[in-house]
Amino acid sequence: MIPSTLGDFRRSSRVASWAGSSDFGSGSFNAIGLMPKQVESVFVDLLGAKATCVMTNVPGPRQTLYLAGRPIRSMMFWVPQSGRLGMGVSIMSYAGEVRMGVVTDAGLAPDPEAIVAGFKLEFAELKAILKNKA
Questions:
Q1: Sheet of 87-94: strands edge to edge?
Q2: pLDDT of 97-125, one tens digit each?
Q3: Which stretches does DSSP call E strand in 1-134?
Q4: Three-class secondary structure of residue 120 per DSSP
Q5: DSSP-assigned letter for residue 15
C-alpha cells in the first residue's frame, strides 16, 4: 500500500524503522555494492524486477553555500532509475527549503505534477500543525 498522506507515511516509516528494515536494506545494498560486478548485476536485476518505486530523502546543508563567491540558490538530485522501476521520488532539504522531484513511467503515473502538488498540500498541513503546537 502506498501511503496517501504524510500521516500514513509517518506511520508506515515507524513500522519499517521499528522492524529494522531500513538498516537491513541499506546494509544489504552496501554489501551488494562490494561484490564483483557480475554478481552485483544479478542482484540489481532481481531487485529491479520486484520494486516499482524508489524514494530517497537527502538532508542537505542547512546554510546557504557559495560557489565562486555567489550563493547557490537551490540544489536537487534525482533517484537513479535502473531496472524496470516505474517511479523515483527525490526529496532534498537545503538552506531551510525542501524540494521534491518525481520521475515516473507515463503508464504508471501520467501526471507526476499531481504527486508533487499533493506533497505540497500535505507539507503545508504538517507545518500548520507544528505551528499550532508551538
A1: 53-59, 87-94, 97-104
A2: 888 888 888 888 888 888 888 888 988 89
A3: 53-59, 66-67, 70-71, 87-94, 97-104
A4: helix
A5: H
Q: Is 124 exposed, middle or buried (0-12, 13-18, 19+ CB in 10 A)?
A: exposed
**Single-letter residue type at 18:** W
Name 64's Cβ contacts closer than 8 Å, sequence gap at least 6.
71, 72, 95
* pLDDT over 50 at 23, yes or no: yes
Q: What residues form DSSP beta bridges with 89?
A: 55, 102
Cβ-proximal residues to 33 (8 Å cutoff; 6+ apart), any chain: 40
- The pLDDT value recorded for residue 26 is 61
| Whole-structure pTM value | 0.60
